[in-house]
Amino acid sequence: MKFLLRNPFLTRPIKWGEPFCNREKELQTLIREAKNSGLVVLYGPRRCGKTSILNQLEGRLGNDWIRIELDFTFVPNLRELVIRLDEILTKALPKSKKIRKALAAKKVSLELSFDPVTMTPSFGLGLKSKDAGSLIAESLIRLELLTSLPELIDRRVLVTFDEFQEIIYAPDNKDHIYEKLFRGVFQKRPEGFSVVFCGSKNTVLRKMFSDRARMFYRGIKSLDINSLQEDFFIPFAEENFSRTLGIDIPKVIPEVVCRFLDGHPYGLQKVMHNLWNLCDTEKTSGIDWPEALGIALRDFLLEELLPFQAHIGQLTPVQRKTFQAISGMEDEYQSIFSKESLGKIGLAQSSIALSLKALDEKGFLTKVPEIGHDRYVVTDIIDKLCLRILSGVSVDEMTDRVILAVRSS
Ligand SMILES: Nc1ncnc2c1ncn2[C@@H]1O[C@H](COP(=O)(O)OP(=O)(O)OP(=O)(O)O)[C@@H](O)[C@H]1O
Ligand SMILES: [Mg+2]
After folding, report:
1. Which end of the chain has the least Cβ crowding within 10 Å, N or C?
2. Could you tell me the pTM of the whole model?
3. How many structural domains compose the chain?
4. First CA to last CA distance, the chain
5. How do residues 92-126 score in pLDDT, each as one tens digit?
6. Which of 275, 310, 345 is the last residue of a domain?
7. 257 and 204 within one domain
8. Is-contact 229 254, C-beta < 8 A?
9. Is the C-beta atom of 11 inside 6 A of ligand 1?
10. Confidence at residue 200, expressed as pLDDT on a 0 to 100 scale
């Protein structure tokens, strides 16, 4: 039998048609909301599979739909938003005479006004040309055109906004004007127009979508994604080894990896990717599974260190120290503000409090509300493992424990 020798464990966003593990419940919700012209906010930390699941959604919706993607990491201001929207609209609109006529008609007929109390923009027919120079008006025209797409091109439209929380950092986002623009336009969306907002800074995103003055605090569906459950990942790994290499991977291998990495989607794929490569070259001579897993894990951890160091490069020294301290005490459920902890860290309580807030907003830490005091945990298990290595725990020590779990199973 000839096997397809391409590594099925992908370490980048998964496209439609590529091996993708479960997320069936979440996909059903997304499909239902899209078909009902709904708005969804998709929460999930870095590298948990937001882009991948949206790619699956697009594929599952099929050809009656077009997907429009916009990543707000690359939209620092309204001028850039206008440029991006122009690119999107130019690509989406066929250059037929009928459409050009419809657009020309829209452009001269749009009127922008603001509610004096809520500052919510409204628009209607009759834009005066003198307003057209304002970037807010320019954005509004384009967003309005975006929502007209289903009618103009006779297809349903799925808009996906990635890293949407970044709009709050735009220097020209005065009085939450961005949020008001999107709300004003999308609240009046037509049938066949659906939007998924997502981002990896969950604290900031949640705040945006629960504030009544800012986003769609009502009528929006929230959806959380995080780790992959081992009940789904184990069969996924088994099936992919068997289909591509004709090898039966012992169940305990994906099982211990799931436990070691708390089901972290990117981590699981990366370790399995490494293991698959080893098996691909060694399959004729028989595989020593614990040995191979040890190599795959060690390579994975060492490869993650460099990007991790670059990632924490955005933190101040005090934030880095606080991050390290939280990671060190996480398992002991000890308060970072206890006398003992403060003494160990050597930072003032007020500096730590500020750092915790910043780390939470940047997605490095997650706040776990508890009676008495809030507890913080490191959001990303890979960050936690890298912090451990940087604090002196050896990679071998970490992987040996996992190998032992395999050998003793
Ligand atoms: N359902 C899944 N099955 C298998 N692998 C997955 C799944 N979801 C995500 N992954 C893997 O996790 C990694 C991260 O996926 P993806 O880029 O979609 O996440 P993201 O949340 O969009 O990340 P970022 O925050 O960096 O944008 C990829 O390597 C992908 O292969
Ligand atoms: Mg992504």
Report:
1. N
2. 0.89
3. 3
4. 32
5. 877 666 666 666 665 534 444 555 666 555 444 33
6. 310
7. no
8. no
9. yes
10. 93
**Helical ranges in 188-333 per DSSP H:** 202-210, 230-245, 252-260, 265-282, 289-311, 317-329
To the nearest whole number, what is the mean pLDDT of the chain?
87
The answer to whether residues 220 and 252 belong to one domain is no
- Same domain for 117 and 194, yes or no, is yes
Ligand 2 ion local residues (Cβ < 5 A):
50-51
Residue 78 or 5, more confident? 78
Helix, strand, coil abundance in the chain, percent, nearest 5: 60, 10, 30
Q: What distance in Å separates the CA atoms of residue 227 and residue 237, rounded to the nearest whole number?
A: 15
Range of the domain at 254: 230-310
Sign of the CA dihedral running 143, 148, 153, 156? positive
Asked whether 200 lines ligand 1 (CB < 6 A), one says yes
Whether residue 192 has its Cβ less than 6 Å from ligand 1: no
Ligand located closest to 48 CA: 1
Mind listing the pLDDT tens digit for each residue in 136-177?
Answer: 888 888 899 899 999 988 999 999 999 999 999 999 888 888
Q: Mind listing the pLDDT tens digit for each residue in 374-394?
A: 788 999 999 999 999 999 999
Residue 358 has which token pair? 């910043």
Residue 355: CATH number of its domain: 1.10.10.10
CA of 49 to the centre of ligand 2 (A): 7
340-365 mean pLDDT: 87
Please report the pLDDT score of residue 354 as a whole number: 93
Parallel, antiparallel, or unpaired: how do β-strands 156-162 and 65-71 relate? parallel
**Those residues with Cβ within 8 angstroms of residue 76's Cβ, 6 or more apart along the chain or in another chain:** 170, 171
Mean pLDDT of all residues in 186-204: 94
Q: What distance in angstroms lies between residue 358's CA and the mean position of ligand 2's atoms?
A: 22
Domain co-membership, 168 together with 137: yes
d(CA 267, CA 252): 17
